Every structure is written in structure tokens, then in C-alpha cells.
């Protein structure tokens, strides 16, 4: 049996699942932006709990990724259904799915990687002026690379230099630590591993996040 | 896009609120024709009597059962055709076990919480895939033909390139099943030259092992597990390989796999290995978990109670051992196998406790059942163990020989036969004994084929018929019996009663081993010789 921390997180997640279902039901009966925002928030909290659990397990030495083949196109189309916040329509999120279609399948932990990307998208949408883009490519050194760019002010110098651990000054840095951990834990038998790269070469000097998987 | 409206579904969930919530979501997605099942029992009944397009099951089904075990059961027993899609709904803990499931994976899984849109898109996707690959899935069931399945793969690779990975994965497994290990290895190497992926790593190791390169296969799997520590197929395959030379190491590997996914089947495997390693305390725990965890009764076997009783008795816990034997009787329907097994285990426990007279009496009860009805190999081998425990090794060997001859090509049963010797402290003798049995069977087949070739067909037929009528689970013997008869017809003209006999032996061979390598060739000969009004042969 897993210790109290892990089982408690599961309990909370179950309650959250029930809450999310009720919010969904309420939204079906009377749609409103507030309910939609609330459901998106419940989703976000769920993601944070999963991240917390992963970091806890890493600490305990019991974090194991579940890597198997996954169709990239369906993976990204599903990511598209995730709520990203800012429902006022001021931000356009563009998905470039051409290379996903060409690549077909890739072996990775789709559950954890989806959390990283959903989090990164939410973050990009929050800081963008008008444009967020997601694309997939195959870097020369092998593997695949998910790239999320926006046209906002970019990451702070403190974050890029490693002095600051969270994407926003108020954040705990949970999302970033989780993303780096999961990226690094993706490995291949020949010794390559994944990584998370951040810089300000996004749209018009905006933020760019690249998640590389081997 | 697939229209869900015309499709029929089955929803399995033990919690009423979850069931109705999911039912609404499914209806919203367009799946209106949907039966519901609350328990494993109901689910199995529904699946056995209806043909569904789609099954949606929650991972947790209560009573110590889960959707993965249900899926394995209905797929293994071939109650659920491969053309039916199986989707698993799971929380995060179940996800790790479902996403890396070894032999029988769901067609898709969905992690809670999910939105109605995600559910709909997944349902459409999974049904689209089933429809696109239908010619292949049709050949993967009980009535399917693996060679035709391979042909379907070749066609679908060009017509359905979107599902290339699925097709390659199935094609690799088919090549392995058909013994075409060279080609399987080439396929896995080709995939791995493009990218790293766990199924091809494990497939490659299996192909290497099948070619006799066990060391390299083991190294490959150990390496793969460092990279993919949740990949259950790698543990299962590695344990199988290691077991042949080092049962202690094999036990450790199964322990690791159990940490990833605690299934009844793995507990059973651990119990068996621990018994062979004389680690009786560990064996007791494993069998106890197998017996206690599954409160549905659908996943445990007679052997789990037998293992529990014997592991207890080896530790001097005779009262617990007798309770386990009683438990076996309470949990399973009455059958000759059950009463023979109970009596045989009881006899071993009593012998261990020094109650010689009672032990002999229990053995006599087991032998009486054995004399009256044909028993499955597990029950027969249990009686052999009881014979050894009562000092009757001649009778024990007779029973083991009959089982080994009948199941000569079944590695699992031969290993179980050896375990009986090993438990009696006669491991080396057992190895020699089983080797002699194997050679005798080869000699019988060779002699008969030799007789047939030199024109002594009548003698060959008499010999092979006698063997095939005795060894109904030995595909090789039945195929040779059919062949000798067909050669006689070819040479000396049609005899309808003999042709019917050949037909019966080919069916017998197919029942024993539907994928026997020589079956297609002899079946073809039958079809060439059989006149239009003879019984058609719908196999191979």
C-alpha cells in the first residue's frame, strides 16, 4: 500500500473528479462563462495534483513512466480539447499538425506529456498578446520535439538563467520541475534522454518552450 | 467519420452512479444502444451471448476484480472476438497497469477525468480503427487463420498506412506464432532502426530466444527494463527465459512485475516458482493473495488452493492446509477434476503430517476418480505427486508418462511434470525420465513414418491409430495417423470409412494444437483426395 501522501492525493483527485462532473452537468443545464472557467480550474488543480504525485514518487524512488506507442495526431487533437483559459477569444491558438500526421506513432508516456503540454499552453495563452502556436518536428539529433511559442513578453531573465524556478513570479515552480523531470525520465535503450528547453525565440521575441523526447 | 448511432455497446461498472453518468455521456456521444453490466459475472454472460461493437469497462470492478483481468479472461477464452473494441476507463493508478498491459491490451484507454468531447473522439477513433483493420482482426479469433492474417497485414500496410504501427505489431506476433522467427527478427530490427519503442525491444528478444540465442535475449530484455520499467511484457518474457536456468532469479523478476501490476496470474506464477525454490513462506503469501483477492471466483483455479495447502503443509501448518483444501471444494463447482485434486492434495498433506494410513486412503480416492474419468493434466499430475508422497513412485511415473506423451509438444505441461519430480526430490531423475519419454515419442513417429515409406502402410496405420486413440492431445501423432491413412488411399484407392477416420484425426490434431506447423500440409492432402461429397475440412 502506498503511504498516506499518495493515497490522500488519490482521494482528493476522486473528489475533484466528482466536482468536475457536477460542474459539467451544471454547465450543460445553464451554460455560463463562470462555470466554464470553474471547470477549467478544476482540471488545472487535477493536473497539479498529478504533478505533485509524480514529484513525490520521484523522491521515493518509485516513479516509473508508462511508455508505449501513441498515435501523434490523435494525441495532439486531444490536447486541443483541453481547456486553456482566457475564453474572451482574444488569443488564437494555432496547431500545426502536418508533421504529426507524417510521423505516425511515437513511444512516450502520453499521460504525463499531455500534462506538460496542457500546462505550457495555458501558460502561453496567459502571457500572449494574440498568438500561440504549437508544432511538432524532428530535430537533427533524433527524437521528436514539441514546440510552443507565443508573442508575449517572453520568459524573465531570472527564469532563463535559472535563478527563478517558476514560470511566473507568484508560482511554486511545480509545473516546470515536473516538466523537466518527465522530460529527463524519457530515455532510450541506447542512452539518449529527453529535455526541456526554454528561450525567448518565440513569435516576435516571445517565449519558446521545446520539449524533446528521444 | 464513424456514426456511433448504429453501434451496439456494453458498459461495465460496479458503481451505480458512475454507471449512469457514463451511460449519459455515451448516449450524448451517439452510442444509444448500450447494455449494462454491474459485475464480472454479468459482464461475462452478456459478452458470451451478444455480439457487441464496443465494450466500455471501468478498471475497478470491485470484489478484487479489475477490467484488465476481465479482458484477459474473455480474450483468452476467445469469447470476445477481436473485431469488438474494448475501451478501459481508468483512474491514474489503473492507468499504469492498463497502458503497459502485457499479452492482452485494451484497444484504448481513457484516464479520468475526461470531457464528453474527449470520450466521443476516442470512441470514434477506436471504432474507425477496428473497421479499417477488420480483414485482419477477423483472422485473429478462434476461427481465424494466421496465414490469412499475415496476408491481410501485407494488403493493409498499403491500403491503411495510417495504422502502420498496429499492423507491424500484429504482424510481428503472427510471424512468431507461425515460427517464422527470421522474418520476425527482421521486422523488429527494421522498426528499432527508426526509433526506440518497447514492443519491438521485447519482440526482438523473443525472436532471439526462439532462435536459441537465450543469453542475448535476456540481456536485451534487462536493458529494455531499465528504460521501460513499467513494461509488463518485458518482465513476463524475461521470467520465462530465466526460469529455464535459474528459478531463484525468475522468482525475483516476477516479484518486480507484481509491483507494477498485481494480477492473480502473476501471484500464481510467483507461488509456483517459490514452491520450486522451497521458499514456502513466500509461496504461501502468493497463493493466499491469489485465493483471497479474487472474490468473484472467475480468476482463481484449483491449483491456487492446492498451492496454498502444500506451501502450508511444508511449513508444518497442517490445519491451515486442510482449510485450504476445504476452501477448494467450497469455491468451485463439483467435477471429477475437483474431487481428484482435493483427495490428491489431502493425501500429500496427510503424508507430510505422518498420517500414513489416512494418506493412503485419500490417495485411493483420487486414483478411483482417475480410473473412472479422463482428467486434465493438472489433476493427473497432482495424483502423481500424491503417489510420490505415499512412496508409490512406479505409479507416479506411469501417470506422468501418460501426461507427457499426451502433451509432448506443450512446454508448460512438461515443465509442470518436471516440477512433480523436483518436489519429490527427484529432479535429475525427472529430467532423464522426460527425455526418454520424448525420445520414445520421436521413435514411435519415425518408425511409423519409416514403415509407411517402405510400403508397410497397414502396420504404420495400426501403430499410429493406437497411439492417436490413446493420446488425444498429441497433435503430432494424430497428424501422422491421418497422413498414413491418406497415403494408403493415395496408393491403394478410396476407402470411405478410412477417409472419415483421417478427417477425425485432423480435427483431433486441430483441437490439440490449431497452429501445428504440419497441419496445413496434411489438411491439403486430405482436400486433394476427398471426393466432393466427403466431409469438408474447415481447418488449416
- Write down the CATH class of the largest domain in chain A: Alpha Beta
| CATH 4th-level superfamily of the domain at 1-132 in chain B | Response regulator
Strand content of chain B: under 5%
CATH architecture of the domain at 1-132 in chain B: 3-Layer(aba) Sandwich
Using the CA coordinates, give the radius of gyration of chain A.
Answer: 17 Å
Q: Can you count the helices of chain B? A: 27
Task: Give the % helix of chain A.
Answer: 40-55%
Shape of chain A: globular
User: Quaternary state, please?
Assistant: heterodimer
Average pLDDT for all residues of chain A: 89
Strand composition percent of chain A: 15-25%
The description of the largest β-sheet of chain A is: 5 strands, mixed
Task: Kindly name the structural category of chain A.
Answer: alpha+beta
Q: Please describe the biggest sheet of chain B, giving its number of strands, its sense, and whether it closes into a barrel.
A: 5 strands, parallel
Q: In the residues of chain A, how many domains can be counted? A: 2
Instruction: Please report the total strand number of chain B as a whole number.
Output: 5
Return residue spans of chain B where pLDDT drops below 50 for at least 5 consecutive residues.
none
Shape of chain B: globular
How would you classify the helix and strand content of chain B by structural class? mainly alpha
Please, what is the average pLDDT of chain B? 92
Distance between the termini of chain B: 36 Å
What's this model, at a glance?
Chain A is α+β, with helices and mostly antiparallel strands and 214 residues long. Chain A has 7 helices and 7 strands; from the N terminus they run H-H-E-H-E-H-E-H-E-E-H-H-E-E. In chain B, strand 3, helix 3 and strand 4 (85-90) form a beta-alpha-beta unit.
